[in-house]
Known about the structure:
This protein is of the alpha+beta class. The chain has helices spanning 2-31, 33-61, 66-81; strands spanning 85-90, 95-99, 108-113, 117-122, 127-131, 136-140. The strands form two sheets. Strands 1-4-5-6 form a four-stranded antiparallel sheet, with no helix packed on it.
Amino acid sequence: MDRKKGIIFTILLIFSALFIAFVAIMQHNFMNPDFAASEKQSMANTALNSSATINEAKNDKSSKSPSDDNEKIQTEDEEESEEITYSTRTVTADLLNARSGPGTDYDIVGIVTIDQEVEVEDDGSEWVKITTPDFTGYVNEKYLSEED
């Protein structure tokens, strides 16, 4: 009987230790959202990089026609001709991730907070380029105040 009590006590002790470790890890991730986001982002980037490599290999095998190059040049010219406006705007979200490119698939380069003023380069798209004293990145325009 004492042996059964000892085994049960040991099992409960192990489960308790595992539960405490689980809670500590979850609390760390909750208190450090950048850590959890960067962990998820690195896994997503790995998947994207592998699929991009496959797509590049497929594209290299296909032949390019001169009309494809002309279309690409024309598209680049159209992008350059878009009007870019510069302004100072205020962040309207409590915490807003700024990313290295225009989309959620890009790495987080910094975080801006509510009522923080940022310099904005707006080319008319949904994502705008912001500049702060600490970093430059892209955010969704809907989280910024209207142009002043």
